[in-house]
Amino acid sequence: MTDETLKPSPLHALHEELNATMGSYAGYALPEHYPSGMEVEHLHTRKQAGLFDISFLGQVRVRAKEDNAAIAAEALEALMPLNIKSLEKNRVCYGLLTTDQGGIRDDLAISRQENDFLLMLNGPNREDNADYLENAIGDDCKLIREFDRAMLSLQGPQSAEVLSRVLGQQVIAGMRYRDSAEVPWEGGSIIVARFGYTGMEGFDISIAAEQAEAFARRLLADPDVAPAGLATRNSLRMEAGLCLYGADIDKTTSPVEAALVGSIAACRRAGGERAGGYPGAQTIEGQMEHGIYRQRVGLRPQEEVLLGGGVELFSDEERTDRVGRVTSGCFSPTLRAMIAMGYVTPAHAAEGTTLYATDAEGQPHKVVVTVLPFIPQTGH
Question: Which residues form the signal peptide (predicted)?
Fold first, then answer.
């Protein structure tokens, strides 16, 4: 039974028809998993293709009032350490909104369209971050909320073949990783981006709410496609070593601590042609030069124990020397083992370092630091 206080996604009726086990995420009622279960969904997506409902993402457009994309790019560059001015039309990049203290306000995907930029905000804070953007982009730009649009994600090695059968080989074949395209479909248009947050080959699809169910049914009619819930999306992103906002990153963590320095464009770093100029730049540049007190690492529990967010990590079995904490963990169907991520002091971040965690009963468990990702990413 669905909590009536939760907002239904445009695919809610379809999820119910497919007997999904529903959960709460970002104010929406969304599938945790379907009757086949998370493990089956995960492995099917790894081998073929899984279809996810990610309509909780907040879609907004940032557009200059004169329809000048260069003005909009300059406004966005003042808020994040990216080279948005050089982002080509119909290309997507991953980026961070930073705070004045050098923390992460949000991580998001940004797609340059014909005359504006389409941003995909994380669901839990989408209203607050849309308000922040609206107030921060200046008088020469405007923000257009498109929260009523649906968002689907088709992920897995067969996703390109599936979309080719639906939209045409000529549309999909020419798309590189992080390309986007506006494609006509059934009297309307959809925005397809060769992108996703599973570390795999895949596509994110922005579509009008009234067309979403028909398009999802068309995809699910393909024998390579199975519906997949948010539990599977979580296990896939964990295997790929990708952060979940609100768990692994938030306003208290910096891009340097989170091992997301790659999201800071070279031209925005110290010595670059447009160095700094974004919130928290001085703090972040200082960390890049002088070091940090904690850093994100992968963790492999040496026993079949799930280590969730908040579990403390110690350097000794007696647990007297606290050196970090777990931020997220799950069972990896691919590895047939428990995996986790967390933050530890740099002195304890080397691959192979043995740490100790405490379970709910107070028992110690050995954990080994490992490099990320757990599974090599294949979407590049």
Answer: none
Q: When comparing pLDDT for 124 and 19, which is higher?
A: 19
CB atoms within 10 A of CB 247: 16
Which residue range forms the structural domain that includes residue 330? 293-380
CA–CA dist 104, 96 (Å, integer): 7
The Cα 141–Cα 68 span in angstroms is: 9
In a domain, 277, yes or no: no
Q: Are both 153 and 229 inside the same structural domain? A: yes
pLDDT, tens digit (0-9, with 9 covering 90-100), for 136-183: 999 999 999 999 999 999 999 999 999 999 998 888 988 999 999 999
Q: Is residue 141 part of a domain?
A: no
State the virtual CA torsion across 193, 177, 327, 9 in degrees, nearest 10: 20
Domain end marker among 194, 222, 239: 239
**CATH number of the domain bearing residue 215:** 3.30.1360.120
Q: How far apart are CA 241 and CA 260, in angstroms?
A: 11
Full 3-state SS string of the chain: CCCCCCEECCCHHHHHHCCCEEEEECCEEEEEECCCCHHHHHHHHHHCEEEEECCCCEEEEEEECCCCHHHHHHHHHCCCCCCHHHCCCCEEEEEEEECCCCCEEEEEEEEECCCEEEEEECHHHHHHHHHHHHHHCCCCEEEEECCCCEEEEEECCCHHHHHHHHHCHHHHHCCCCCEEEEEEECCEEEEEECCCCCCCCEEEEEECHHHHHHHHHHHHCCCCEEECCHHHHHHHHHHCCCCCECCCECCCCCCCCCCCHHHCCHHHCCCCCCCCCCCCHHHHHHHHHHCCCCEEEEEEECCCCCCCCCCEEECCCCCCCEEEEEEEEEEECCCCEEEEEEEECHHHCCCCCEEEEECCCCCEEEEEEECCCCCCCCCC
Q: Which of 31, 41, 104 is nearest to 261 (CA)?
A: 104
* 217 domain residue, yes or no: yes
322 is a domain residue: yes
8 A C-beta contact, residue 209 and residue 11: no
